Amino acid sequence: MIDITTENFEAEVIQASMSVPVLVDFWAPWCGPCKSLGPVLEKLEEEFAGRFVLAKINSDEQQELAGAFGIRSIPTCVLMMGGKPVDGFMGALPEGKLREFLAKHLPSDETLQAQAGAEEAQEHLESGDVESALARMAAAVAADPGNDELLYDYIKLLIGTGHLAQAAGALAPTLARIPVPLRFEGLQQWLNALEFVSTDPRGQWTLQQFDEKIEANKRDFESRFAKARVLMAHNEWLDALDELLEIIMRDKKWDEEAPRKTFIAILDLLTPPKPKAGPEVSGKTAGGIELAGHATVQEDEQAALVSSYRRKLSMALN
Predict the structure, then answer these.
(1) Over the stretch 286-314, which tens digit does the pLDDT of each residue have?
(2) With contact defined as beta carbons under 8 Å apart, do 83 and 279 qualify?
(3) Catalytic annotation on 31?
(4) S-S: 124 plus which of 53, 132, 284, 305, CB 3.0-4.6 Å?
(5) Per the residue annotation, which of 13, 31, 80, 155 is the catalytic one?
């Protein structure tokens, strides 16, 4: 449990909620229901053993914070995750209801184990131990098989380190879904490019050989598409996008729109992960509790580049 003031609010609530959920309890010494709710919250914080942090704000002493959250009655609790409020409730709920509220939002033990495994895998990667990283990621996925974020990262790591057969096996169940999640379709296209390079004779062509074929026939889409796959296999993503765009502009429907699908797949692979919400975030909880502030979103160069190619695709298709 942490007592919150305006001085430590940003560090102990906003920044802390980036890594662990923070339940903010607005209370006052004179509030009867607060006196019954507080001990139960403290008990649950201890029982949940680090799955959330309890942050208590004395509304009488911290009126600026109470005003920022739009607090109109106490006790009021607001759950902060990723720097913003995601849910909340008013009044002294019974312990059973509090457990339901927490269980709805807090990560399961399996998820926490998987996250820890993924963090260990990243440490192995940074030290150059790829095999240990793969083993830890595999264990993390097994611990939390329903975690698509983790599965995506694992398959991406398999492909990026050349474990194509394992990647294909891990990817297969996702491709059987209806509809196929776009991000896994992107991994499939990348895998297809690498398999093409290793199995098709054109995978060993030089770029000059492709260019000579294309120069002789601008509508030699087979050569253009093969060249794009070779470029993908060598991580020459922008050149691959440009080649695919040339096909799309000339024939949008060629080969059942394979160039368009591959183009979109590359954009998905290049799209940087969404930034975590920072301290200048405004939001409203499911209970209607508002947090004042203004969101400021800044695109980095990678995101801007992806956006520019999305616009190019849109123009080619229209």
Answers:
(1) 333 344 433 334 457 888 999 999 999 99
(2) yes
(3) yes
(4) 132
(5) 31
